[in-house]
Amino acid sequence: MLVEITDFTGLSTSPDGDYAAYRAEHASVEENAYRSEWIVFRLDGDEAPRRIADGGAPIFTGGWAMGEAPRWSPDSKWFYFRALQDGEVQIWRVSMTGTAERLTDDAADIKSFELLAGDKLAYEVGASREEIEQAELDEYHSGILIDGTVPIGQGLFRSGLHHGRRVTQRYLGEWMQVTTLLGDRSTQVKIMELESGRVRSASQQEEKAFRRIAGGPSLDDAPGRSEHTHVTADGRAAHAIKEEGKRFLRARIGEGEFVCAAPQCSRSIAWLSWRGAAQEVVFATRDRERGDAMSIFAWDVENDGVRLVREAQGLLHSGRVIGLGAGCAVGAHYALCIAADANTPPQIERIDLDSGETRVIAAPNRALARNLDAHAELLSWRDGEGRVFTGYFYPAARDSQGETASPMFLTYYNCQGFIRGGFGDEWPLVSLASAGIASLCINMYPMDGAAVSAIEEYEIALAGINSAIDLVERRGVDRERIGVGGFSFGASVAMWTAYHSDLIAAASLATPTMTASYYWQRALKGDAFKENLKRVWGLGAPDETPVQWRRISPSRNLNRLRFPLLMQLAEQEYLVAPEYFVPLMESGAPVEVHVFPDAPHYKIQPRRRLAIYQRNLDWFRFWLLGEEAGGARAAQFERWRKLKEGAQSSGIRSEGDANGQTSKD
C-alpha cells in the first residue's frame, strides 16, 4: 500500500473561478509502471470530482513527478497539458465536457508550452527523437569521445531511461544533472494556430512573448534575494524577500509600494499568491519547530493586516516536498492544496479563504491511513549547543514477551509530509515500527543559507542524532541496537556517524559516498566541479588533500565500517563504491550489495521500491531482532546467517542474536 499510494500534481483553477483541476498519479507493482489521470470538480459545489482525461505516464524529475499545472483557455472551456504517451511528450487538451484530443505530433518531445493571445499555442522543442537516436548510433560505431560531459562510471551507450526510452546521457550544467545526447542543443519555438491546426516557426515577437511568460516575472525590481514571487497580468507584484538574514513580504500595486509589518511575514515562506483580483496576498509559512508544518495567512496589502486562514500539521502545497511545485492553487474564494502529514497520506483540500473552512475533496489513500499499524509523533529536542531539532518518532509495537527496550532505526535528512520511506523513500518506517523496531526520521538542521562546510553540517547532524538517542532512550529504545539508513546527504551523515561514534549496530545505504573514484569519474567536468568540491567538502585531488580524504572517504575508514552494512545502489552510481565495499567483503565484514540496472539517483520503479522496502525491513529485523522469514526469501536469510557466522568467527562486530542481544569487539 505504501508503494501504490496515490500522489497529486498540477493543481489549478479555471480563470472564471468555477472549476479546479488536478492530476492523480498511481503506481502499480503488477505493471511496474505509473499512470495518471486528470480530475476536475466545481469549486463552489458538492459534486464529486470526476475523471476527465488520461494524463499519461508522469514525467519524473529526480525522484518525483513534475508538478506543472495545465494551461486554461481564457473562456475556461478547455485546459491544455503535456502528456507522456508511447515514449513521446506531446500537448493535449480536454474540454469540461470530457472531450480530449492530442494537438501536437512533433518529431521532438515538447519541453514547455504557453497559450498566446490570438488563439495560438506556442511550444518549445529541441533535437528530434530520431536525431538523438542517430547521434547515439554514430557514437556507438565511431567510438565515444571522453570529455567533461560524459558520465564516466556508468554505461556509455543508452544506459539511462528518459521518457520511457533508453538513451545515452550527458552531464548538463555544473553538477550531476544529466540530459540526452544533443540535449544541450539550442531550442526552437513553434506556433500552432488552434483554429486551423497549422504549425509554423514562431516570429521573433512571438518567441519573445513565449519566453517572457514561460520564464516567469523578472525579479530585478525586488531588493535583496527574492525567494518567491507572483506578478499578475494587471501588474500587481508580490515578493518574499530574504535580505541580510531577514525575511519580509513586499508588494506593489500600481505606483504604491508596501512592506508587511506583521511578524508572520518574517517567517520562512514556502509560497505566495495574489488572491484573484483582490488586494490581498495569500502565503504559506513553514514552522521549523513544528517539523516544517505549514500555515496559510492572508495579507491585506493596503491596510497591512495579516490573518490566519489555516494551520496544518504538515504540508499544504502542490507536491510531496516544500519547494517542489508552485504552492497551492489560489483563486478568488478558495485555495486548493495537497495536504499531507506524518500520519495522513496525500489528499486534496479546498480551503475557504474567508472562513478557513476546509473540505476534503479527494482522499484516495484513506484505506492506507486506516491500516497504519503505527503512528508518528512529533519530537523536538536540543543538542549540546542549544540547536533545536525536530523529527517524527514511531514507537515500536511491543512483542508478546513484554520486552521493555526496543531497537530503533533512524534516518536523517527530510521528513516532510507523509514520510513513507524517509528521504529517498527506501525504509518503510511504519512497517519497521509494526515489526518491533522503533523508527525516527530526523529533519536536517536548517542552516538558512549560512555558509558552512559539509563537515560542519555532518558534525551538527551527529550532535542532533546523539541528543535524539538520549531522548528516545528514555522512551524505551535500546541504544545498543540502533540501525541507520541514509540517502544522498543522509548517506554521508550515516558514514560520518560511523566514523565518529559507536552508535551503529546495522546500516543500510541507498547511495554511495565520497571516494577517490568519485573524484576521478567527475574531474573532467572542470573547474566548476572542482571548486564546488573544494568549497563544500574541502577536497582537492586525492593526492592534493590526503588528510581531508581520510576524514571523509569510507575507503580510508574501513576499520570503522565493521557492522552489518546493506547497500542498495543505483547502477549509475555504484562504481563509486567498490573501493570500499569490496575490501569490506573480502575482510569478512557482514556486507551485502544490490545494484539496480539503469537506475539514477532515485530508484522510482514500483517493483524496485517494493523490493527495497522488503529487503530493508528484513535486514533490520534480522540484525536488530534476530528474526527471519521463510518462503521465497529463505535463501536471503541463509546468506545473512553465513555473514553473521563469518563476522563472529573473525571477531567482527555483529549486532543482535536470536534473542535480540548485542555484542561488540
Automatic annotation (TrEMBL):
Question: Which positions fall inside the Peptidase S9 prolyl oligopeptidase catalytic domain?
Answer: 471-624
Q: Where is this region: Disordered?
A: 645-665
An example Pfam family from this entry, by short name, is PD40
Source domain of life is Bacteria
Which NCBIfam families does its entry note?
lasso_peptidase (NF033523)
Q: What is this protein called?
A: Atxe2 family lasso peptide isopeptidase
This chain's source organism reads Hyphococcus aureus
